[in-house]
Design goal:
The structure holds two protein chains of two kinds. By secondary structure, chain A is an alpha+beta fold. Chain A has two helices and three strands; from the N terminus they run E-E-H-E-H. The chains are: A alpha+beta, B mainly alpha.
């Protein structure tokens, strides 16, 4: 490694025992994918937290810009008809 | 796991009043601030320094305890101490990652630590002279750290708060293993009990100092409180720690080394004696018993490990180059 070169950053995702999807749990530095997986095991699963680990180079993640939050997410806010409680069903119909 | 009041911060904000008010409104609404959100430069810098100090404390904190791994009295104690020291390393890594989301690099933070520029919790500049010190550290130092860290789980900065949740979950074992060591010694032979008492005598005051300078002298508490980086003052946390710890010491049959310690019925808390702030500042400024040795140990580890980092990167680059040649040939 030249002095200027940082060891790359990876994002770590763990799938917990309870059947949920992989979930982001943090990041770490590693020279390659194999070392990233090993380090993720050591850093993030010391107490049997997971059954599966994903790692991906942080630089490969494409993220939405927080500045665009309005234009991206506002359109969903006024569409209350997308929620079940928008529809009126008489009580005597029972649970639906 | 270890944090203490901030030392030596002094930023001024230069953002417009409207920007600062909008930011404060988000904080007041208990919104979490996330890495790419707009934030005042002073908020960013305060967090970089605080999370950095916290991370360094975890890493340097491995040294006094690591000192006893090979001499732990039983295999059970040795396995527990190894696991604890490994946790501290992990906690340091969670925290470095959280700090990196604010735009500081790991390398920069490491260099600041080994050049002596960055601070870490002054407690780790004291030596671990006997096995009982390992008990006292787990019980008192980790106990004090938990007091500090539980409120940090609600810190306004998302990545820091999330890292602290992980840390706090793991921390409780640390304090319990320390207390168990103290209990065994306190219930042991006269010499063992004396060893426990001696460790308590030496660690009690430095543990109280971990909460940082008294409220009147803490420079940036107010701004950190407004930004919900800090939820309690140094003195509030210190008092909670004293109140929680006194009964635990009584249960051990050990005496806290403070003649002024007394239950205050009217206030519903323990009064305690004057802390030697001259000692605190001397240790913070680099004149504790082991400041130089701690930084030298980190520097040696960093420098001795350079060839491993270089080799790992060279290997990764070589494999990546081979892979792209193979792909091009297809």
């Amino acid at each position: 490694m030249s002095e200027a070169e940082e060891i790359p950053l990876w994002e770590v995702f763990i799938r917990p025992r309870n059947g949920l999807a992989h979930r982001h749990c943090g990041s770490l530095h590693a020279a390659d994918a194999e070392m990233a997986l090993q380090a993720a095991r050591d850093v993030y699963t010391r107490r049997g937290e997971g059954l599966s680990v994903w790692v991906t180079p942080s630089a490969q993640i494409v993220a939405s810009d927080p500045q665009d939050r309005g234009s991206l997410f506002d359109p969903a806010e006024d569409k209350i008809y997308r929620h079940p409680s928008f529809y009126e069903i008489p009580d005597d119909v029972g649970h639906m | 796991m270890y944090s203490q009041g901030l030392i030596g911060s002094g930023e001024q904000t230069t953002e417009t009043p409207e920007f600062l008010a909008a930011f404060q409104a988000r904080i007041d609404a208990d919104e979490k601030i996330e890495p790419n959100d707009p934030m005042p430069e002073a908020y960013r810098k305060t967090l970089i320094r605080q999370i950095g100090q916290h991370a360094h404390s975890e890493i340097v904190g491995m040294l006094p305890e690591g000192n006893w791994i090979t001499r732990a009295p039983t295999l059970r104690r040795k396995a527990a101490l190894l696991a604890k020291v490994q946790d501290e390393g992990g906690h340091g890594l969670y925290l470095y990652s959280a700090a990196e989301t604010l735009g500081v690099s790991r390398k920069q933070m490491t260099e600041e630590l080994i050049s002596g520029k960055a601070k870490y919790s002054s407690i780790f500049n004291y030596p671990t002279q006997t096995w009982a010190d390992i008990g006292a550290i787990g019980w008192l130092v980790d106990g004090a750290a938990i007091m500090n860290q539980v409120p940090l789980c609600r810190c306004s900065y998302g990545p820091y708060a999330r890292a602290m949740i992980r840390v706090c979950k793991e921390e409780s074992f640390h304090q319990r293993q320390g207390y168990e060591i103290m209990l065994k010694l306190a219930e042991g032979s006269a010499a063992q009990k004396e060893m426990a008492q001696d460790a308590l005598n030496r660690w009690w005051w430095p543990a109280l100092m971990m909460f940082g300078p008294p409220d009147g002298a803490s420079e940036h508490s107010d701004q950190s409180t407004r930004w919900k980086i800090k939820r309690f003052t140094n003195d509030e946390l210190r008092q909670k720690f004293v109140d929680a710890t006194v009964p635990q010491a009584q249960r051990l049959g050990l005496t806290l080394p403070d003649p002024a310690l007394a239950w205050n019925e009217a206030e519903g808390r323990y009064d305690y004696g004057e802390i030697d702030w001259d000692e605190f500042w001397a240790v913070v400024k680099g004149n504790g018993p082991l400041n130089k040795a701690r930084v030298a140990a980190r520097k040696k580890a960093w420098e001795d490990g350079a060839w491993v980092r270089e080799a790992a990167i060279a290997h990764a680059n070589k494999r990546a180059a081979r892979q792209s040649t193979a792909l091009a040939a297809e």
